[in-house]
Amino acid sequence: MKRPTKTGSEQTSQQPVYYLDNNATTRIAPEVVEAMLPFLTEYWGNPSSMYAFGKQVAKHIEQAREKVAALINAEPREIVFTSCGTESNNSAIQSALLAHPHKRHILTTSVEHSANIKFCAALQKQGCHITFLPVESDGGLDLHLLEKCIRPDTAIVSVMWANNETGVLFPVEEIAAMCRSKGVAFHTDAVQTPGKLNVDVKDLGVDFLSLSAHKLHAPKGVGLLFVKRKTKYHPYVIGGGQEGGRRGGTENVPSIVAFGRAAELAMAHLKDENTRVRALRDKLESAVLHHIPGTVRNGARESRLPNTTNISFEGVEAEGILMLLDQLGICVSSGSACTSGSLDPSHVLIAMGCTIPRARGSIRFSLGVDNTEADVDFVLKHLPGIISRLREKSV
Ligand SMILES: Cc1ncc(COP(=O)(O)O)c(C=O)c1O
Question: Is 349 left (phi over 0), alpha (psi -120 to 50) or beta?
């Protein structure tokens, strides 16, 4: 793979980039670009048209639907294409509220992505009751507490599968069974899982599941919501009759086709992510924890995505680390990517009981199938010196 490059205002030549921020977004795979290009250039008709030039495009949407359905072992008719993971999460929650007008309680966790937390906070202002479940120090959930918090007026339980900041996994299969036994709808935000975990909606037993294409080597701006067959569904985006009346708006055809191709690749990536990428992540993590003093991993060691490690560096602010790594072309995150740039400590780490300085000194490294040993070695070569320099400055 050709290494990505960046240009800076002071630089005339291009600098290589060491990209270890795959939970934020991923490179569009060349196979995916190839699959989507004809739908930008040649086959640009409206899939809802009555003439063959448009109708031929509709066929490719259906093929993509079959491919993304196969990725999660769903039926194609259980897939609703959306504009992103955020829309998918919002849609599942909104649908449950509309399906049960007398139920105004939503049970979720304090470590969800802002696509849930902020949506639920907005619903709270509109009169809904929200329970944001706390988490334990390793990022895990107390399932007894979760069960106790399900109320007769709970419209939906929405719990993410893999945390985007720490990689910690929640036992969604058990939570889904709990919800089923109580007759409550269950949604999981599985945005971080394809290509890293085997996603099987039948085994999981979920009613709703969200994905986002840009996390699996496809473009930004397309996602999906799995809606289990026979689950009542009320559209969130209302307009034309697209997606069988479940999501209005002319389809983003090139990106949907790309999503289909990326779903095939994600299945093929599963082994590499769980062997080679996991070993690279483990090498990085153990070298940092053993060779840089004052470091600690945030989140459980075992029940975790194979590509993610979140590490706090005592006595330094993540912002400083990010800036110095960036000068070398190394891309990593502090807190969640969607809030990076803001200096607020991560709500996920704070919910896990981290102190504010520990949360402010945390960095997320998220690897992917494009990473090589050379990327990890480059980081390990420079990071210890960066941390020492920052610590010297702060005394
Ligand atoms: C766990 C999780 N959920 C939802 C989202 C939002 O997805 P999108 O960027 O497609 O709206 C993200 C993106 O970072 C995520 O990591």
Answer: alpha
